[in-house]
Specification:
alpha/beta; seven-stranded mixed sheet
Amino acid sequence: MPVHTPIHISVLLVPPTQLLDVSPIDLFAMLTEPYLSICFLPAPIIAGSVPLSISYVSEAGPDHPAECTANAGLRVTASLDDEIASPAKTQILLIPGPDPSTVPSEKVKTFVREHAAQGTVVMTVCTGAYLAGYAGILDGKQATGPRSLLPDLKSKFPRATWEERRWTSQGNVWCSAGITNGLDMVATYIRETWPGPTAEAVLAIADVGARSVEYET
């Protein structure tokens, strides 16, 4: 059974954030040894666990919970300036969606841009595509977003190639369409990055990963 390299994931929160857009982070967390150990799974499945850590990052920083939909808030553990959230420390940057009318600050755009430039895997969920678009990291790349918002995305970010699919990936940039398509995207990433019985067990427990990249209707 391979021993996986530890990774760190930063979740960029630009309030107000769609709460359900954040849920794909839990698929990553389910790959860890502590989670697998409490699920009564066979030892070989647990042996394939992935050591990882997660930070929740916002421009306001740890003293300010990030407002989410459904009258919820998320505890922020790092600011944009903290080393743990830097490209040197972060292997995956997950960007859940804000209000689609949100225009990110220059500091947020620079943060996203630097991660993409230095090879961090950047994954947008739903309207998180707007943040990536404003940062310019979708220029010249395949991308997707919520089906109902694709005309607006095409208008605002014409240098991207917008596709009506559940997810896209090109280089180190991944995009998913509406809300739960973030789960489809992360399921695909997990299968490609850590293929094998542990990944399949996690996706089976979560009951995700069966939908095609293409819409049926």
